[in-house]
Amino acid sequence: MAAPSTPPPELLRRVLRDQGAALGRLASAWTRNRAERDDLMQDIALALLVALPRFRGECPERAFVWRVAHNRCLLMARQRRRQADDELTDEHISPQPSPLARVEQEQRARHLQRAIGRLSEDHRAVLVLSFEGLSHEEIGDVVGASANAVGVRLHRARAALTDAMQTSTATPERKRSA
Question: 97 Cβ partners below 8 Å, 6+ apart?
């Protein structure tokens, strides 16, 4: 352990002389190229310059140095991940759907609307209320049925909607044979 009166730059020089090669290997394991490795080594050295004067000898000095270096590696990895996420969000994901996606969405909405229109009034009522976020109890209050009955009606209405949507997407040949 270094004497407390040793100036921080002298402590850092000694640590880097004794453990620099091992710290370089640690930095290489966490980086993708030499430039990143050099940047990480500089960050580790700066963190050690700040941390070494506070070392109280509660663990071996080598363990303290490795803990500081490891924490810098973790911080760099988190920053790289965050930066990659930001770049993905900023550059690759448009907040607006593409024109083709909008057309497809509009077609699906019209298709769904036509299929709902072909349902019985009872099925249509419970489905629309469900789409609006009403609970089974609330739908029951609206249509005059118990929550359990609403659950059964919703199940049947969803099955009928699935059938109606499949029927409307069937080709003319499939419709004739059905």
Answer: 105
- Which amino acid appears at position 13 of this protein? R
**Assigned token pair, 37:** 């490795």
Q: In angstroms, rounded to a whole number, what is the distance separating the alpha carbons of residues 104 and 88?
A: 25
Ranges assigned E (strand) in the chain = none
Nearest to 23 by CA among 55, 67, 53, 66: 66
pLDDT tens sequence across 138-148: 899 889 999 99
Lowest mean pLDDT among 46-60, 68-82, 161-175: 161-175
**DSSP, res 97:** P
CB 23 within 8 A of CB 16: yes
Q: Which CATH number fits domain 100-169: 1.10.10.10, 3.40.462.10, 1.10.3370.10, 3.30.70.20?
A: 1.10.10.10
Element of type H or E holding 120: none
CATH 1.10.490.110 fits 8-92, yes or no: no
